[in-house]
Amino acid sequence: MNTDEFFMKRAIELAKKGRGKTCPNPMVGAVIVKNGQIIGEGHHKKAGLPHAEVEAINSVKDKTLLNGATLYVNLEPCNHYGRTPPCSLAIIQSGIKRVVIAMRDVNEQAKGGIERLKEAGIEVEVGVLENEAKRLNEVFIENITYKKPFFTMKAAMFLNGCISVKGGISKWITSEKSRRLVHRLRGLHNAVLVGINTVIMDDPLLTCRIKGYRQPKRVVLDKNLKIPITANIFSKYPENIYIITSKAADNAKKRVLEAMDVNIIECKVRNGEFDPDELSKKLLENDICSCLVEGGSRTHGYFLKHKLYNKAYLFYAPKISGSYGAFNVAGFEAPKSPSDAITLKETVCKKIGEDLLIEGCFDVHRDS
Predict the structure, then answer these.
(1) H or E, element range at 101
(2) pLDDT digit string, tens, across residues 124-133
(3) What secondary structure does DSSP assign to 291-333, as a single string?
(4) Backbone angles phi, psi at 127, to 5 degrees
(5) Catalytic residues
(6) Which pTM value belongs to this model?
(7) Between vectors from CA 140 to CA 340 and to CA 186, what angle results, nearest 5°?
(8) What percent of the chain has pLDDT over 70?
């Protein structure tokens, strides 16, 4: 590992401190180095607050030390006036003479910082630990490039792929250790999403029950607004519940739910299901940048069929059940050939207590 990689690694570690807090902005960390020593550090804490580069510059008490220093940052400094002034201008005014950047910004509105720094006579190097930087901000890249949230599939099932026993009962298939990990996943995503049948059959809270993690927004796909007013989900934080429904759903019930501080979002319905592009758009408009989809069968089928998923966490209990009268994890039409099945890539298998966890990534993007 060379010197630039060493300090960039530190910038990436700082950026991780903003995980789950910066949406819709990316996670960014910055390190300022003079004569081989770190003299300033910062990270972007929350959307609307100063960016990492400004935080790092402000952390240096003796500003004369900035003259001739090197700044390491995992994302191209912004070059526009948004909630905060451009970071490129702050860097130029600081006296920093070299900037090392992991990756270019994918946001057309914000990019251009590299060129502005070069025009000001600052030495710029781009691409140090670029792959690591892209993995760190995979949610932001997905939001900006493909105009959709980063969707993660979470399912708990028997070894034969059933997510319930007869009658649709699904509590509890996997162990307490697996469920605790699921709560951490909830806390790391902006939102948790389920279909209406999961609410009716399991009556979940969908909250994160681990101290120190924020509460995710809770999204229910409910085309016909069948959700019971007495559902358990309404007992806590109704203001962070988002019911996705159709324009044709019962207006009186919409008003009742809105009076309970629940958010009602109307979405286009095509061929009996929500339009996937509009659903993505509506979620992003409500600052849902990353979404943990917890089912059930039809909901997973919908997301798989429309190639919406980016990543999967599949929990398997070391048990086999009968399948007649139960639900399979993926409720949509089977392919005609095994070669047409959806493939997970970059898979990793872990043991969680007695359970098995398979993590993997999808080839998500649909042909345009």
Answers:
(1) strand 98-101
(2) 999 999 999 9
(3) EEE---HHHHHHHHHTT-EEEEEEEE-S-----TTS-BSS-SP
(4) 110, 5
(5) 53
(6) 0.90
(7) 75
(8) 97
